[in-house]
């Protein structure tokens, strides 16, 4: 799962560096616990972006992404009460093989995951900038869902993502109304 705040650069231009740090930490403090609650772990923060891994099931990532959207509504309500504009996010979810390991050199090492599936998830998050939805999943995610009947799944179509030769089928996804209220 990759998520990113839309139009972060213009937003941060209107803030001091200290205000930007406070804003990002407030946002991440709202979103990060959702990932843990749904069986994921955060590989890294990339500024205002989150890269998370869900080792058990794509369902965990999908529910976490949907909960992130839901929490964003509350986050934005608080921002609006404080006289601040709402924010938007993009979330891309893909599944596949990857390798976890250490990258870097001597005095600067870092653990991470690498693989085409990681790159694809990042690119899917990027396509939300051009779509009318904030969360997209790949066809592979849809095929691997344990209980697809609990979701409303809508085909968005095929997209060519930057750096990939193959065309990807992407989908918008939501929990059915009765499922959303039943989720913890």
Structure characterization notes:
The chain is an alpha+beta fold and 184 residues long. It contains 6 helices and 9 strands; from the N terminus they run E-H-H-E-E-H-E-E-E-H-E-H-E-E-H. Helix 2 (17-37) runs antiparallel to helix 3. The model has no long low-confidence stretch (mean pLDDT 91).
Distance, first to last CA = 20 Å
Q: Residue share in helices?
A: 40-55%
User: Which regions have little confidence, pLDDT < 50, spanning 5+ residues?
Assistant: none
Radius of gyration: 17 Å
Shape: globular
Q: Please indicate the percent range of residues in DSSP E strands (runs of 2 or more).
A: 25-35%
- The strand order across the widest sheet is 2-3-1-4-7-9-8
Most strands sheet: 7 strands, mixed
Please report the number of helical segments.
6
What class do helices, strands and sheet pairing give? Answer: alpha+beta
Q: List how many beta strands DSSP finds.
A: 9
H/E topology pattern: EHHEEHEEEHEHEEH
Give the overall pLDDT as a whole number: 91
Which terms summarize this structure?
6 helices; two-stranded antiparallel ribbon; seven-stranded mixed β-sheet; globular; 184 residues; alpha+beta
């Amino acid at each position: 799962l990759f998520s990113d705040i839309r139009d972060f650069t213009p937003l941060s231009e209107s803030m001091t560096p200290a205000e930007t740090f406070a804003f990002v930490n407030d946002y991440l403090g709202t979103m990060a616990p959702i990932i843990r609650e749904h069986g994921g772990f955060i590989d890294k923060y990339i500024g205002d972006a989150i890269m998370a891994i869900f080792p058990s099931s794509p369902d965990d990532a999908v529910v976490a992404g949907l909960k992130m959207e839901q929490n964003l509504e509350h986050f934005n309500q608080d921002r609006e009460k404080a006289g601040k504009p709402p924010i938007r996010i993009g979330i891309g979810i893909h599944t596949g093989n990857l390798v976890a390991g250490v990258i870097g050199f001597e005095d600067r090492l870092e653990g991470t995951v690498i693989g085409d599936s990681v790159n694809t998830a990042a690119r899917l998050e990027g396509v939300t900038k051009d779509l009318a939805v904030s969360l997209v999943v790949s066809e592979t995610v849809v095929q691997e869902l344990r209980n697809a009947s609990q979701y409303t799944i809508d085909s968005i179509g095929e997209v060519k993502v930057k750096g990939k030769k193959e065309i990807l089928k992407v989908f918008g996804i939501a929990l059915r109304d009765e499922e959303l209220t039943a989720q913890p």
